[in-house]
Amino acid sequence: MDLHTVPTHPVRPATSRDVPSSVRTLTRAFAHYPFTLHTVAADDHEDRIRRLQHLFLERVGMAYGRVWVTAGGEEADGGGEADGGGDAVAVAVWTTPERDPSPAFAEVLPLVAELAGDRAPAFEAAERALEPHRPREPAWFLATVGVDPAHQGKGLGGAVLAPGLAAADRAGHPVYLETATERNVRFYERLGFRVTAEVRLPDDGPRTWCLRRGPGAP
């Protein structure tokens, strides 16, 4: 899919002021996601997801990578946004080859294991299963992306991803991501991604697809 055909919504780089609303969006988006249901303990599940998303957003994406959020207008009656895409109701968090995020991952992984609770072994097994399929060359990695469920179906996912895809294209780097829903696979394929692996996670985990998009993919 040509990026010029992605529905237009205002999108801007995130700032520290966007952290609370971005975490709220990502928590809602991942509350019932197959991968996190499999790898994060059921007790206090939503709060665990919130704290995990906060970690990756603030300590990884904003410190070492790039983060974009939707930039909405004035709130409409009923609590919605007038343009259908309010501030940070869609969020995309990337790591990039420009700055090695390894120190951040080394710092947060023990905290991730703690937040995973009794599902920590499942998380570690999932990481081992996916690692061989991750790119060895410099690449943009989509660490997390989410659209608030109340705002899905409005083109916000494609819009919030577009700046990262364009930046990766300009730099000549491929883009890589993983998803655990077939619906997401179809969405990413429309943006030029191709499936490179389909992995059944250990311990009766969900199918997880690895996808890659080459520089300048249509």
Descriptive overview:
- The chain has 218 residues and is of the alpha+beta class.
- It contains seven helices and seven strands.
- It has a seven-stranded mixed beta sheet, sandwiched between helices.
- The longest helix has 20 residues, at 45-64.
- Residues 1-6 and 73-85 have low confidence and may be disordered.
Kindly state the number of beta strands: 7
- Mean pLDDT, as a whole number? 90
Give the H and E element order.
Answer: EHHHEEHHEHEHEE
- Poorly predicted sequence stretches spanning 5 or more consecutive residues: 1-6, 73-85
Structural class, judged by helices and strands? alpha+beta
CATH class: Alpha Beta
In CATH, the topology is named Aminopeptidase
The proportion of residues forming helix, as a percent range, comes to 40-55%
Basic shape: globular
Alpha carbon gyration radius: 17 Å
- The tally of structural domains comes to 1
Placed side by side, the strands forming the largest sheet appear as 1-2-3-4-5-7-6
Name of the CATH homologous superfamily: Gcn5-related N-acetyltransferase (GNAT)
CA-to-CA gap between the ends?
5 Å
Q: What amount of the residues lies in strands?
A: 15-25%
Count of separate DSSP helical elements? 7
What's the main sheet like? 7 strands, mixed
Supply the key terms.
single chain, 218 residues, alpha+beta, Aminopeptidase, 41% helix, globular, disordered N terminus
